[in-house]
Specification:
C8orf32 fold, Immunoglobulin-like, 4-stranded antiparallel beta sheet, disordered C terminus, 287 residues
Amino acid sequence: MLIRAGYDIAFAATAPTPMMAMLSIHPSRNKDLKTPHRLLASPDVPTYDYVDAFGNTCTRLTVPAGGVTLSCDFIIEDSGIPDIQSPHAIQHPIEELPDDILIYLLGSRYCETDRLSDTAWSLFGHIPAGWQRVLAIVDFAHNRIKFGYQDARPSRTAWDAHQEQVGVCRDFAHLAITLCRCMNIPARYCTGYLGDIGVEPIDAAMDFSAWFDVYLGGEWHTFDARHNQPRIGRILMARGRDATDTALTTAFGPAVLSRFEVHTDEVPEVNPAMGATAATGAAEQYI
Protein backbone atom coordinates (compact mmCIF):
# COMPACT_ATOMS: atom_id res chain seq x y z
CA MET A 1 0.00 0.00 0.00
CA LEU A 2 1.03 3.63 -0.51
CA ILE A 3 0.75 6.36 2.12
CA ARG A 4 1.00 10.09 1.55
CA ALA A 5 2.35 11.94 4.58
CA GLY A 6 3.86 15.25 5.54
CA TYR A 7 3.44 18.43 7.54
CA ASP A 8 3.27 22.22 7.45
CA ILE A 9 4.67 23.75 10.65
CA ALA A 10 5.36 27.43 11.27
CA PHE A 11 7.29 29.26 13.97
CA ALA A 12 7.34 32.97 14.78
CA ALA A 13 10.53 34.56 16.10
CA THR A 14 11.63 38.12 16.87
CA ALA A 15 15.35 37.36 16.54
CA PRO A 16 17.48 34.70 14.83
CA THR A 17 17.01 31.47 16.81
CA PRO A 18 19.01 28.25 16.33
CA MET A 19 16.82 25.15 16.04
CA MET A 20 17.23 21.41 15.81
CA ALA A 21 14.45 19.44 14.10
CA MET A 22 13.67 15.72 13.90
CA LEU A 23 11.12 16.00 11.13
CA SER A 24 12.61 13.51 8.68
CA ILE A 25 11.61 9.88 8.45
CA HIS A 26 14.00 7.42 10.07
CA PRO A 27 16.79 6.24 7.73
CA SER A 28 15.46 2.67 8.03
CA ARG A 29 12.41 3.77 5.97
CA ASN A 30 14.32 5.59 3.20
CA LYS A 31 14.23 2.54 0.95
CA ASP A 32 10.43 2.61 1.03
CA LEU A 33 10.11 6.13 -0.37
CA LYS A 34 8.28 6.44 -3.69
CA THR A 35 8.78 10.22 -4.00
CA PRO A 36 11.60 12.38 -2.62
CA HIS A 37 11.49 13.29 1.05
CA ARG A 38 12.70 16.87 1.51
CA LEU A 39 12.34 19.25 4.43
CA LEU A 40 11.55 22.63 2.87
CA ALA A 41 12.04 25.92 4.71
CA SER A 42 10.33 29.18 3.83
CA PRO A 43 12.09 31.55 3.70
CA ASP A 44 14.86 29.40 2.22
CA VAL A 45 17.31 29.35 5.14
CA PRO A 46 20.38 27.08 5.16
CA THR A 47 19.80 23.62 6.68
CA TYR A 48 21.98 20.58 7.11
CA ASP A 49 21.44 17.07 8.43
CA TYR A 50 23.40 14.80 10.70
CA VAL A 51 22.72 11.41 12.28
CA ASP A 52 22.57 11.33 16.08
CA ALA A 53 23.69 8.63 18.51
CA PHE A 54 20.35 6.78 18.17
CA GLY A 55 20.46 6.68 14.36
CA ASN A 56 17.93 9.47 13.83
CA THR A 57 18.22 12.13 11.12
CA CYS A 58 18.46 15.59 12.70
CA THR A 59 18.25 18.90 10.84
CA ARG A 60 19.94 22.07 12.02
CA LEU A 61 18.80 25.55 10.98
CA THR A 62 18.45 29.07 12.31
CA VAL A 63 14.94 30.51 12.42
CA PRO A 64 15.24 34.06 11.04
CA ALA A 65 13.64 37.10 12.64
CA GLY A 66 10.03 37.01 11.53
CA GLY A 67 9.83 33.21 11.60
CA VAL A 68 9.99 30.19 9.33
CA THR A 69 7.69 27.54 7.87
CA LEU A 70 8.91 23.94 7.67
CA SER A 71 7.05 21.63 5.31
CA CYS A 72 7.30 18.23 3.70
CA ASP A 73 5.12 16.02 1.51
CA PHE A 74 6.00 12.53 0.30
CA ILE A 75 4.65 9.11 -0.66
CA ILE A 76 5.97 5.97 0.99
CA GLU A 77 5.28 2.29 0.46
CA ASP A 78 4.09 0.25 3.43
CA SER A 79 3.43 -3.44 3.86
CA GLY A 80 -0.13 -2.81 5.00
CA ILE A 81 0.42 -5.45 7.68
CA PRO A 82 -0.62 -4.65 11.28
CA ASP A 83 2.06 -4.62 13.99
CA ILE A 84 3.61 -8.08 14.16
CA GLN A 85 2.54 -10.22 17.12
CA SER A 86 5.08 -12.66 18.61
CA PRO A 87 3.45 -14.18 21.71
CA HIS A 88 6.28 -16.68 22.22
CA ALA A 89 9.05 -14.05 22.33
CA ILE A 90 11.04 -14.60 25.51
CA GLN A 91 12.38 -12.11 28.03
CA HIS A 92 16.16 -12.28 28.24
CA PRO A 93 18.10 -12.45 31.51
CA ILE A 94 19.95 -9.16 31.91
CA GLU A 95 23.34 -10.90 31.75
CA GLU A 96 22.46 -12.15 28.23
CA LEU A 97 21.43 -8.77 26.79
CA PRO A 98 23.71 -7.18 24.15
CA ASP A 99 25.74 -4.23 25.45
CA ASP A 100 23.92 -1.66 23.29
CA ILE A 101 20.53 -2.74 24.68
CA LEU A 102 21.34 -2.08 28.34
CA ILE A 103 20.73 1.68 28.04
CA TYR A 104 17.04 0.92 27.48
CA LEU A 105 16.79 -0.53 30.99
CA LEU A 106 17.92 2.69 32.67
CA GLY A 107 15.86 5.56 33.96
CA SER A 108 15.73 8.69 31.80
CA ARG A 109 14.32 12.23 31.80
CA TYR A 110 10.67 11.20 31.44
CA CYS A 111 10.94 7.60 32.66
CA GLU A 112 11.64 7.51 36.41
CA THR A 113 12.24 3.82 37.05
CA ASP A 114 13.19 4.55 40.66
CA ARG A 115 9.75 6.01 41.46
CA LEU A 116 7.72 3.29 39.77
CA SER A 117 9.76 0.15 40.51
CA ASP A 118 7.78 -0.96 43.57
CA THR A 119 4.50 -0.30 41.76
CA ALA A 120 5.63 -2.29 38.73
CA TRP A 121 6.69 -5.35 40.72
CA SER A 122 3.50 -5.31 42.78
CA LEU A 123 1.37 -5.18 39.63
CA PHE A 124 3.28 -7.43 37.25
CA GLY A 125 5.65 -9.56 39.30
CA HIS A 126 3.24 -12.50 39.27
CA ILE A 127 2.73 -12.43 35.48
CA PRO A 128 4.94 -14.72 33.37
CA ALA A 129 7.96 -12.91 31.94
CA GLY A 130 7.99 -12.04 28.26
CA TRP A 131 5.19 -11.17 25.87
CA GLN A 132 2.41 -11.79 28.39
CA ARG A 133 3.96 -9.40 30.90
CA VAL A 134 4.35 -6.67 28.27
CA LEU A 135 0.70 -7.06 27.25
CA ALA A 136 -0.31 -6.65 30.89
CA ILE A 137 1.76 -3.47 31.14
CA VAL A 138 0.24 -2.07 27.94
CA ASP A 139 -3.26 -2.86 29.19
CA PHE A 140 -2.53 -1.13 32.48
CA ALA A 141 -1.13 2.04 30.88
CA HIS A 142 -4.00 2.13 28.38
CA ASN A 143 -6.60 1.95 31.14
CA ARG A 144 -4.74 4.13 33.65
CA ILE A 145 -4.55 7.24 31.45
CA LYS A 146 -7.46 9.14 29.91
CA PHE A 147 -6.48 10.60 26.53
CA GLY A 148 -7.12 14.29 25.85
CA TYR A 149 -5.25 16.92 23.83
CA GLN A 150 -6.35 19.51 26.40
CA ASP A 151 -4.23 17.64 28.94
CA ALA A 152 -0.98 17.82 26.95
CA ARG A 153 1.97 19.10 28.95
CA PRO A 154 5.61 18.85 27.84
CA SER A 155 6.90 18.49 31.40
CA ARG A 156 4.73 15.48 32.34
CA THR A 157 6.78 12.40 33.24
CA ALA A 158 5.76 8.76 33.55
CA TRP A 159 5.30 9.24 37.30
CA ASP A 160 3.13 12.30 36.70
CA ALA A 161 1.01 10.45 34.15
CA HIS A 162 0.53 7.58 36.58
CA GLN A 163 -0.57 9.97 39.32
CA GLU A 164 -2.65 12.38 37.22
CA GLN A 165 -4.18 9.67 34.98
CA VAL A 166 -4.48 12.01 32.00
CA GLY A 167 -2.28 12.69 28.99
CA VAL A 168 -1.57 12.24 25.31
CA CYS A 169 0.17 9.48 23.34
CA ARG A 170 3.65 10.35 24.65
CA ASP A 171 2.41 9.93 28.23
CA PHE A 172 0.98 6.48 27.48
CA ALA A 173 4.33 5.52 25.94
CA HIS A 174 6.40 6.93 28.79
CA LEU A 175 4.39 5.11 31.44
CA ALA A 176 4.53 1.77 29.62
CA ILE A 177 8.24 2.14 28.86
CA THR A 178 9.02 2.91 32.50
CA LEU A 179 7.03 -0.06 33.80
CA CYS A 180 8.76 -2.35 31.29
CA ARG A 181 12.19 -1.14 32.35
CA CYS A 182 11.25 -1.64 36.00
CA MET A 183 10.51 -5.27 35.09
CA ASN A 184 13.93 -5.61 33.37
CA ILE A 185 12.42 -5.46 29.87
CA PRO A 186 14.38 -3.11 27.57
CA ALA A 187 12.05 -0.49 26.06
CA ARG A 188 12.61 2.49 23.77
CA TYR A 189 10.46 5.46 22.74
CA CYS A 190 9.34 5.93 19.12
CA THR A 191 7.68 8.81 17.30
CA GLY A 192 6.34 9.15 13.79
CA TYR A 193 3.25 9.17 11.60
CA LEU A 194 0.23 6.99 12.31
CA GLY A 195 -2.86 7.72 10.26
CA ASP A 196 -6.38 6.36 10.71
CA ILE A 197 -5.71 3.48 8.32
CA GLY A 198 -7.72 0.32 8.87
CA VAL A 199 -9.61 1.87 11.80
CA GLU A 200 -12.57 4.18 12.26
CA PRO A 201 -11.29 7.78 11.81
CA ILE A 202 -11.37 9.92 14.93
CA ASP A 203 -12.88 13.41 14.94
CA ALA A 204 -9.66 15.31 15.61
CA ALA A 205 -6.89 17.01 13.68
CA MET A 206 -4.10 14.70 12.54
CA ASP A 207 -0.99 14.74 14.68
CA PHE A 208 2.27 12.85 15.00
CA SER A 209 2.11 9.79 17.25
CA ALA A 210 4.20 8.08 19.92
CA TRP A 211 4.56 4.36 20.59
CA PHE A 212 7.35 2.14 21.92
CA ASP A 213 9.46 -0.95 21.20
CA VAL A 214 10.47 -3.70 23.59
CA TYR A 215 13.38 -6.10 23.20
CA LEU A 216 12.22 -9.71 23.45
CA GLY A 217 13.47 -12.87 21.77
CA GLY A 218 16.52 -11.14 20.29
CA GLU A 219 14.65 -8.40 18.43
CA TRP A 220 12.53 -5.28 18.86
CA HIS A 221 8.72 -5.46 18.87
CA THR A 222 6.22 -2.60 18.51
CA PHE A 223 3.58 -1.82 21.15
CA ASP A 224 1.13 1.07 21.47
CA ALA A 225 -0.31 1.81 24.92
CA ARG A 226 -2.60 4.57 23.69
CA HIS A 227 -4.44 2.55 21.03
CA ASN A 228 -3.77 -0.89 22.56
CA GLN A 229 -4.26 -2.73 19.29
CA PRO A 230 -2.05 -3.63 16.30
CA ARG A 231 -2.12 -0.80 13.78
CA ILE A 232 -1.32 -0.38 10.09
CA GLY A 233 0.91 2.25 8.52
CA ARG A 234 3.38 3.41 11.14
CA ILE A 235 6.09 5.60 9.61
CA LEU A 236 8.98 5.90 12.05
CA MET A 237 10.71 9.27 12.38
CA ALA A 238 12.87 8.91 15.49
CA ARG A 239 13.53 6.71 18.51
CA GLY A 240 15.50 6.98 21.71
CA ARG A 241 15.26 6.68 25.49
CA ASP A 242 12.23 8.99 25.74
CA ALA A 243 10.78 12.19 24.24
CA THR A 244 13.96 14.10 25.10
CA ASP A 245 15.84 12.18 22.42
CA THR A 246 13.08 12.47 19.82
CA ALA A 247 11.70 16.01 20.18
CA LEU A 248 10.21 17.19 16.87
CA THR A 249 11.88 20.58 17.29
CA THR A 250 14.18 22.07 19.88
CA ALA A 251 14.62 25.85 19.76
CA PHE A 252 17.58 27.45 21.51
CA GLY A 253 15.73 30.69 22.15
CA PRO A 254 12.21 32.14 21.75
CA ALA A 255 10.39 30.56 18.80
CA VAL A 256 6.60 30.34 19.06
CA LEU A 257 4.65 27.64 17.24
CA SER A 258 2.09 29.43 15.05
CA ARG A 259 0.84 26.66 12.74
CA PHE A 260 0.87 22.87 13.02
CA GLU A 261 -0.66 20.67 10.34
CA VAL A 262 0.08 16.99 9.74
CA HIS A 263 -1.36 14.65 7.12
CA THR A 264 -1.16 10.86 6.85
CA ASP A 265 -3.49 9.19 4.37
CA GLU A 266 -3.59 6.01 2.36
CA VAL A 267 -3.28 6.62 -1.38
CA PRO A 268 -6.30 5.04 -3.12
CA GLU A 269 -5.43 1.95 -5.13
CA VAL A 270 -5.34 2.22 -8.89
CA ASN A 271 -7.28 -0.35 -10.91
CA PRO A 272 -4.65 -2.47 -12.75
CA ALA A 273 -6.95 -2.57 -15.77
CA MET A 274 -6.25 1.16 -16.25
CA GLY A 275 -2.69 0.34 -17.25
CA ALA A 276 0.71 1.64 -16.22
CA THR A 277 0.18 5.14 -17.59
CA ALA A 278 -3.03 5.63 -15.64
CA ALA A 279 -1.41 4.30 -12.48
CA THR A 280 1.49 6.70 -12.84
CA GLY A 281 -0.86 9.62 -13.33
CA ALA A 282 -2.82 8.64 -10.24
CA ALA A 283 0.33 8.60 -8.15
CA GLU A 284 1.47 11.95 -9.49
CA GLN A 285 -1.67 13.71 -8.31
CA TYR A 286 -0.59 13.07 -4.72
CA ILE A 287 2.85 14.64 -5.11
